[in-house]
């Protein structure tokens, strides 16, 4: 046991030949990694994708997992190796864009039809109010003068109350995500420019996918549906395609019966400092920030995690040569 670390028990004990990963980590990463890398290489039997996107911050260690796989595959095939880019997402944007009514708002906002939709909604609301007032008049619960005054007040207040009724949630969310969404789109354009190729082939590698919010925000930023590969997912491939319009291969699916719980790869609980950057889910920066201070143990763990993930990648590509 290394100095300063808690005592391990059972599957959490460090795996043999690894300095950072537990027995459970190493076993699951190798098994699930083999599944998704096998599918990845099957999907790209000749040339490799131009770029692989890794969502910040939890997927950062996958850079070291993928490196030996890409190195060996590109050398054996005599093809160009995929470039790898980190992509910082914003959790609020991810969740907002995955709401059906916010997807509708996104389309309306981008198409310039927002004002027409807003006006139509206001007219419908006024019509509903007018009908309710006529009912109260018929029942003699209001006098004609009272009804007239209420109608005038409704018409005046309708605009003020709009954001709290009907499509109010859409307006608030769109206003909140407008700037950070542009930050994501700027980062996507930056990556495309760096790749310097017309219609580059992109894929995403992630450690864990729950509802697919992160992938939705990345797809929105790039303006296309990008194929994704993840070690674990809450649902299976068909569910993500039907319910979220996402193209995802998962190494292990927990199944719908698990609700909103996705068992994490254990190192996710321990590697927040070992990856060397801050985990910030709602900021507007294009890049993850480096840790302000790194003590000896943090730098040590960073090296251990990177080395271990590289070993897992080497094990996976070695396993696949026997397929």
Task: Report what the structure shows.
This protein is an alpha/beta fold and 323 residues long. Among the domains are: 31 residues, no CATH class; 73 residues, no CATH class. It is 54% helix and 10% strand. It contains eleven helices and five strands. A five-stranded parallel β-sheet has the order 2-1-3-4-5. α2 packs parallel to α11, α3 packs across α8 and α4 packs across α7. It starts with 22 loop residues before the first helix and ends with a helix. The N terminus is likely disordered.
Summarize the structure.
The chain is an alpha/beta fold. Among the domains are: 1-31, no CATH class; 100-172, no CATH class. It has 11 helices and 5 strands, in the order αβαβαααααβαβαβαα.
